[in-house]
Each structure stands twice: as C-alpha cells, then as structure tokens.
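It would be a great kindness if you could assist me with a short task in structural biology. I am sending you one protein, given as its amino acid sequence and as whole-number tokens for its backbone shapes. I would ask you to consider whether the tokens describe a fold that such a sequence might reasonably adopt. The full record is reproduced below for your convenience.
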Amino acid sequence: MILLSRIAVILTVLVAVQHLMFLILEMFLWEHEIGRAVFRTTPETAAVSAGLAMQQGLYNGFLAAGLLWGVIAKKGDVVIFFLLCVITAGIFGALTVSPRIFVVQALPAIVALVLFAMSRRRAA
C-alpha cells in the first residue's frame, strides 16, 4: 500500500516535471532548433505560431503547478483533477494533432491516475 502510494506520487511528480519541460519548450525554445526538432516544425511555422505556443506553455505550467500543489499538500482530489486534465489534453492532442501525444502526455498520466486510485482504494 505504502509502496504503491509512493510510486503513484513519484509518477505524478514526473508528469508535473514533464509539463514544466513543455512550458520551457513552448514558451522559450519554440523557435529554437531544439523546440523545432521536438515539435517537428519549420522555422516559418514556428515563427508564425510562437504566440500560440507560449499560451500552450503557460497552460502546461498551470497543469504542473496543480499536480505539484496536490502532491505537496497531500490533496488527493486535486491530484486526481489535474491528472484528468492532463489525460484530457493528451487525448485531445492525439485526436487533433498527433497520436504521439497520447503516448507522451496522456499515457504517463493514466498510469499515475490508476496507481493513485489503487493506492487510495487500498488505504480505505
């Protein structure tokens, strides 16, 4: 039970760190060769979409902040809410942009959510 809970917390923190990385990539490195390589964009597309990417990065930062807040404050409902937000965003991105987004964004959050739910159920 304790081990499962710790693994769920660690995975949730990793999902939060992943979203902080998205923030950095989208807000600060979008037009840089690193950002263009990660998101597979051309210099022209990156230049035109930089403002939109910054907005996305900000939202990813909010997701990370919510996950970390939930973990630090030990608020399970907050963690569940923000993991569901991440999963929803990942599914939407997979359907509208690239299936790769499901694997990169939604899948880790789904695993964290399942482990978190299992650890809560066993603790009850």
About this structure: The mean pLDDT is 95. The first helix runs from residue 2 to 28.
